[in-house]
Structures are given as C-alpha cells and as structure tokens.
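Input record, target 12 of the design panel.
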C-alpha cells in the first residue's frame, strides 16, 4: 500500500511556513495536527510513516510529538508496532521507550551481534524499560549458525528465534513483493509464524 503523506513532509511544510500572528496556533500545535492527519486508515490496520527530512534541522520536536501520538493513539488498538531503521537512534530519541516487546534483529556477523548488545546497554543507561527482548537471528544457515551462537554467548545474548536464509526472500524483494506472500510451508514463513506465536503468547 502507499500513503499520501509522511511526517517528514509535514515537518518541512510547517518549518517553512510563514510566521503567523500570536493568536493563531503555534507550530507545535500545527505539527501535532499534521501528524494525526498523516495516519492512514486501512481495513485491518492504520499506519503512519515517519519519512525523511528534505532539508537540515533537528527532529527533536517531531520525536516528542511522535511519542505523544503513540501514547494517545495506541490506546485504541490491540497492538502497536514501531518499525525502526537499523541502528540505535530510536533509543536515544526514546521513541521506543516502555514497549512490551523489543524485537532486536541480528545477522550472523560480529558487528550485528555487538550492535544488539549495545541496544541492551543503551536501554539500561537511559533507563528504558522493555517488557521482554526477543533477539531474532536472520539469514541463518547451517554453516553460520554455530559461529552465530558462539558470538551471541560471548556478548551475553540469548537468541529467541532463527529465520533461515531463503533465496526466495531476495527474489520477492527484487520484485517489490512482501514476505507475507511467501508460501506458507517455506522455511522463512514457518519461522516467522513461530515468532508471532511467541509474541502472542507473551502478550
């Protein structure tokens, strides 16, 4: 599916808008309204896309509003999923604070495993509470799994689930097809189903 507008686009419009008189709404209020209006509604779920800034500037105000939107809007849903870019920025911005389950996806590389460890360290340093942390290993093969398990143990991580490497995933990605279209009996589909069951069991 596609969305008409992202938060990043709304931010640019508001920042570049001419100053209004003091009696009108502040830019903060306009930003809050724009973010709520950016929520797209679909039959089975609603979605809001952060997007990217087209120019320079800080996203601090946007992140503050996003946290407020999540806090208020999440009450109307059974589940709220925050899909973050790879990295640690969402922790320092505290957009993923106090979540029930943090899914940390790692690949069979030293850098990836150490980044997952850093997620735990930053969360502790910033007093960010997670109900549970599920470490999901992706693109796993019989050849790289032993080394992956060894690296995880060395870094104090316990892997919750393994998603096997599957060429069909790369093929679908090249065609722009979602992994939900994978055959239900494919190894990756079965692994993802198991992860979903663990999430539902925890919830």
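The sequence produced for target 12 reads:
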């Amino acid at each position: 599916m596609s969305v008409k507008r992202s938060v990043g686009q709304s931010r640019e419009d508001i920042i570049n808008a001419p100053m209004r008189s003091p009696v009108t709404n502040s830019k903060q209020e306009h930003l809050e309204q724009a973010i709520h209006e950016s929520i797209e509604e679909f039959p089975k779920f609603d979605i809001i896309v952060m997007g990217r800034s087209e120019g320079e500037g800080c996203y601090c105000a946007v992140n503050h509003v996003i946290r407020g939107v999540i806090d208020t809007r999440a009450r109307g849903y059974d589940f709220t999923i925050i899909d973050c870019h790879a990295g640690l920025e969402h922790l320092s911005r505290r957009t993923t604070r106090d979540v029930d389950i943090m899914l940390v996806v790692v690949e069979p590389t030293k850098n990836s495993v150490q980044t997952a460890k850093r997620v735990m360290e930053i969360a502790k340093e910033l007093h960010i509470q997670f109900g549970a942390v599920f470490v999901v290993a992706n693109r796993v093969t019989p050849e790289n799994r032993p080394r992956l398990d060894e690296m995880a143990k060395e870094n104090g991580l316990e892997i919750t689930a393994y998603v096997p490497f599957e060429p069909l995933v790369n093929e679908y990605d090249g065609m722009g097809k979602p992994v939900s279209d994978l055959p239900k009996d494919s190894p990756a589909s079965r692994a993802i189903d198991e992860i979903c069951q663990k999430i539902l069991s925890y919830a």
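The radius of gyration is 20 Å.
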